[in-house]
Design brief:
133 residues, elongated, two-stranded parallel sheet, mainly alpha
């Protein structure tokens, strides 16, 4: 059941980016998990700004592609504590696992094929690639 519209998803994306950027301070972890949070927060913010949906600024990345990347990020987040050997640090491990599950739930509930998101992007594409032959 796809109950999250592209606009609502955009609000969630900006909140997720902020949460990743603030998580090390909020939950008291450092080292590699802290660095990963800053990288993930910056990348997520950049991807959100570049996505072709109502809250995207540049509208370059198609919304379904954005969704595919988020699905991969959700899996990565759950696996990260074991991939990068910080599974013994409870605050960081729990943050990454819970974040991965949350990103996965948002992915499951978002309508990535919404006409609302794709109409604006396709209209922009058509106007930029109009043929004058």
């Amino acid at each position: 059941m796809k109950i999250l519209s592209p606009r609502v998803h955009g609000y969630i994306d900006y909140a997720v980016a902020a949460l990743f950027l603030l998580a090390p301070s909020l939950f008291g972890f450092g080292g590699l998990p802290e660095t990963l949070c800053y990288i993930l927060g910056a990348v997520h913010l950049g991807m959100t700004l570049l996505t072709a949906f109502p809250l995207g600024a540049a509208k370059i990345i198609p919304f379904p592609v954005h969704g595919g990347l988020e699905a991969a990020v959700g899996v990565f987040l759950v696996a990260a504590p074991w991939l990068f050997n910080f599974d013994a640090a409870p605050a960081a491990r729990n943050f990454f696992v819970v974040s991965g599950v949350a990103v996965g739930l948002v992915w499951l509930l978002t309508d990535y094929r919404s006409a609302y998101a794709t109409t604006a992007a396709s209209a922009r594409y058509r106007s930029e690639h109009r043929s004058f032959s």
